[in-house]
Amino acid sequence: MVKRYLDKLPLKKAIEILEEEFKDLRAETEIIAVDQAVGRVTAQGIKANRSAPDFYASAMDGIAVKAKDTADASSRNPIILKKGVQAVPVDTGNPIPEGFNAVIKIEEVNEVDVDNYQIEKSVPVWNHIRSIGESVVKGNLILTAGHKIRDFDLGALLEAGVTELEVYKKPKVIIIPTGDELVRPSKELKKGELVEFNSAMVKSALIKWGAEVKVRDIIKDNKELIKKEVKKASKECQLLIILSGSSAGRKDFTRDILKAEAKILFHGVNIMPGKPILTAKLDDKAVVALPGYPISALLDNYLFVRELIYLLQGQKADQFDQEVVEVKRKISSDIGLEEFIRVNLIADSNGQKPLTAVPLKRGSSAMESIIKADAILRISENKEGLAPGDKAPAVLLKSKAKIKKDLLLIGSHDLSLDLIRNEIAKRGADFRLKLQTVGSMAGLTALRRGESHLAGAHLLDSESGEYNISYLKRFFKNKKMALINLVNREQGFYLKKGNPKNISSISDLKNKDINFVNRQRGAGTRVLFDYLLKEEGIDSTQINGYNKEEFTHIAAAAAVGRGSADAALGIRAAAEVIGVDFLSLTKESYDLILEAAMLDDPRIEYLIKLLREKEIKEQIKALGGYEVNASGSLKILEL
Ligand SMILES: Nc1nc2c(c(=O)[nH]1)N[C@H]1C(S)=C(S)[C@@H](COP(=O)(O)OP(=O)(O)OC[C@H]3O[C@@H](n4cnc5c(N)ncnc54)[C@H](O)[C@@H]3O)O[C@H]1N2
Ligand code: MOO
């Protein structure tokens, strides 16, 4: 029988349960000095103790006058005002002398002599006078209860004579990381050890939301130890977070412990990632067990724990900043699960249409993809994925203004691209270069769909021996396209140090003793490998490991480095990064491809200029295996 251990609660329902169960859960309050209060949340409404200003004050440097004395003044009929009687000098902020009711700016006044001023314009009553309470009015409610204090709130409070205020104490949270395989972050790891980093992510987010957080030492997967720590910690905090052990593994004890000690509220929500979250109430305290996978823990922290931290401070969590975006490819999603998918966003050239969302890697432990993401696309639980042209909401992770300026490059992987990306940022350019590495062919497909500004490809045409052009003819018929040479680079074999299996040519791979690891279908390196095999008259079935695939040069080199393969094809620079031997076989060119119409886009001009710079060429060359003479050179093709 299928063992079902998870609830299938819709997200909204799950949040309602938390709100209902913990509606009276509040942190204690304390009185603190106003100038220490930024980020804290008011426990009571706050009224102004005084008006500001509490006297009539001059708003300008000039002279205080009686408005009626100025009534007839004009440029043709200048009027003289007697100093001390009809006019008194005042500076900005000075009280207005009794009996005066307007101010004229000094630059509009002519000082005729020590006793007389001349003016050429009449002024109305209250001209340039700050009235009593112009800034804040005594008795007015300045801040409501449940207000998170900002820098400018401080100013208004202090001006209004409020020097102390009652705020919620920072909610006390304890985080307990659990797991046999986990160790504190360090540079060196033993085999099988994994760095415990969820606590650092979760803690930092909670501090941002106003909590005071303690992280306990990592506890081994031992039921008694975890139980002891849970009971102890729950007495010292308002919210307890247990990291991992929320699913059904042999050592996932969290559910058992909470079942015995607490009231379980729910275990399992219809979302992905983050499905196996578990929440409970232990002696009125909130307990949340977050799933182990980092992206799942992260998402659940934002969706659920954030609500609780706000609730503890008498607030309701803000809605996420969402934007309706469009997709240009099919994106699958399970019906009955609300899916949260990391995406890059790109704007069309005139910025009129909705932003286009381009999905990134989905895995619940793919951290680089959350760093790269511009937004999290939400596919609701009643949808079975999205089709090209469909729209859906996305939670923005970066500013929309910045996203609209970015350049997105989707294509094959090359180490020089990271160098360039970093250089653009280092120089403070007003755009960022974003990369999605997916392989040459997938890059061209994305460009054709309008999901990127640039593709990166190194696709050999086995007939002509030329790179990329024949593919462009196929992909971009009747279009005017441009090719910018990025680099010419060496392709060859990654081999174990010292080449123990004596591999010296493609035909050596036929040896049954040799394990190869290939690149994914559609990768330029895969195309090259097929070409090299064909040239030698070798059939792919003769190669051990032809169907084993890695997705980047680095991953292929690393497979050789750790011994799971004897050889792989790839670029020299990755061999240098991983520290494996390299046997050069051929040279290829890697081009950036774009619509020719984009060539006068300032960002593209910047990129081309950068690629032509001597200093950048030297840096790329130093990565190993690169020829940079043609970097930045341009070809325009009418296809
Ligand atoms: N048979 C099933 N197995 C799993 C299911 C399922 O439905 N049936 N759900 C999967 C999903 S979805 C998730 S999410 C995870 C949640 O698992 P746990 O909460 O029990 O977490 P672990 O298995 O202990 O760890 C998963 C993974 O994450 C790493 N990890 C754990 N804690 C940390 C930490 N504090 N910092 C960094 N990394 C952490 C851990 O080493 C594991 O690699 O269960 C699936 N399984
Ligand atoms: O839901 Mo798990 O939380 O997909 O990774």
TrEMBL record:
Signal sequence coordinates: none
Reactions the enzyme catalyzes: adenylyl-molybdopterin + molybdate = Mo-molybdopterin + AMP + H(+)
Domain MoaB/Mog, residue spans: 174-311
Major enzyme class: transferase
Keywords: Magnesium, Metal-binding, Molybdenum, Molybdenum cofactor biosynthesis, Transferase
A Pfam cross-reference name: MoeA_C
A molecular-function term among this protein's GO annotations: molybdopterin molybdotransferase activity
Family: Belongs to the MoeA family.
InterPro entries recorded: MoaB/Mog-like_dom_sf (IPR036425), MoaB/Mog_dom (IPR001453), MoeA-like (IPR038987), MoeA_C_domain_IV (IPR005111), MoeA_C_domain_IV_sf (IPR036688), MoeA_linker/N (IPR005110), MoeA_linker/N_sf (IPR036135), PBP_domain (IPR024370)
Cofactor(s) annotated in UniProt: Mg(2+)
Domain of life: Bacteria
Pathway: Cofactor biosynthesis; molybdopterin biosynthesis
Protein name: Molybdopterin molybdenumtransferase
Coiled coil: none
Taxonomic classification: Bacteria, Bacillati, Bacillota, Clostridia, Halanaerobiales
Function: Catalyzes the insertion of molybdate into adenylated molybdopterin with the concomitant release of AMP.
GO biological-process terms attached to the record: Mo-molybdopterin cofactor biosynthetic process
Gene Ontology CC: cytosol
EC number in record: 2.10.1.1
